[in-house]
Amino acid sequence: MTDAPSRRDLIIASLSAAGFASLGLPEEAVAQGVELPATPACDAQAAATPRQTEGPYFTPSSPQRSDLREDGAGELLVLSGFVLTRQCRPIPGALLDFWQADPSGQYDNRGFRFRGHLFADAQGRYQFITRAPGLYPGRTRHLHVKLRGGAQSPVLTTQLYFPDEPGNRRDGLFDSRLLMKLRPAEGGQLGRFDFVLAG
Ligand SMILES: [Fe+2]
């Protein structure tokens, strides 16, 4: 497969530019079909996304990027959704800052592996691609995220969880309102989560 590097670059470029990939390499197939509708479907008074503890491993000033993949193994996860107000209005340009353990369950506390921030588009939609985090002692699998609707808005710090994880029932922080919707795709999983900001 001599054209792999250029195709990969093209895919990453198309993910960055348009948010969607349309090429069919097995590794990238998960990135297909993540297209969100132009407007969200939700009630006029949605419940705000619950806050959760930041935990010990947040690092400020993460790089801006929507692709947290690193070289190496690990199941791909493409997560997308809306950032909304409680009145179901999209929040264009909302900031999302993600951090997570790597596929072996380690946090990078010296650098920025599996850390990055991105901004929702003009319709309040976001999409990022990563590798699913591994387990680390004492917790069920999760992603961390901080969100902000605008420069003057309060920060929401929370965590997202994986459905059907044996560790969810044993995890004292687990909250079923923070479960991603996941569906398998060739090469990994497609995830969906819509955030609702209170302030
Ligand atoms: Fe964590």
Summary keywords:
199 residues, mainly beta, Protocatechuate 3,4-Dioxygenase, subunit A, five-stranded mixed β-sheet, four-stranded antiparallel β-sheet, 1 helix, 27% strand, globular, disordered N terminus, binds fe (ii) ion, oxidoreductase, Intradiol_RC_Dioxygenase, Intradiol ring-cleavage dioxygenase
Counted by DSSP, the helix tally is: 1
What's the CATH class label? Mainly Beta
Integer tally of domains: 1
Report the helical percentage: under 10%
What is the molecular shape?
A: globular
CATH-defined architecture: Sandwich
Question: Topology as H/E string?
Answer: HEEEEEEEEE
- Roughly what is the average pLDDT, rounded to an integer? 84
Sheet-strand content, in percent, reads 25-35%
Per CATH, what is the topology?
Answer: Protocatechuate 3,4-Dioxygenase, subunit A
Radius of gyration: 16 Å
Structural category: mainly beta
- What would CATH call the homologous superfamily? Aromatic compound dioxygenase
Please give the alpha-carbon distance between the first and last residues. Answer: 50 Å
Small molecules held by this entry:
fe (ii) ion
Account of the protein in words:
- Belongs to the intradiol ring-cleavage dioxygenase family.
- Pfam families: Dioxygenase_C (PF00775).
- Residues 42-67 are annotated as: Disordered.
- Residues 54-167 form the Intradiol ring-cleavage dioxygenases domain.
- This protein is mostly beta strands.
- It has one domain (37-197): Aromatic compound dioxygenase (Protocatechuate 3,4-Dioxygenase, subunit A).
- The chain is 8% helix and 27% strand.
- The protein contains one helix and nine strands, in the order αβββββββββ.
- It has one helix at residues 4-18, and strands spanning 76-85, 95-99, 115-119, 125-131, 142-148, 155-161, 181-185, 188-192, 195-197.
- Strands 1, 4, 7, 8 and 9 form a five-stranded mixed β-sheet that branches. The protein has a four-stranded antiparallel β-sheet with strand order 3-2-5-6, with no helix packed on it.
- β5 and β6 form a beta hairpin.
- The longest helix is centred in the first third of the chain and has 15 residues, at 4-18.
- The model is unreliable at 1-27 (pLDDT under 50).
- The structure holds fe (ii) ion (FE2).
- Residues 55, 57, 139, 142, 144 line the site of fe (ii) ion (FE2).
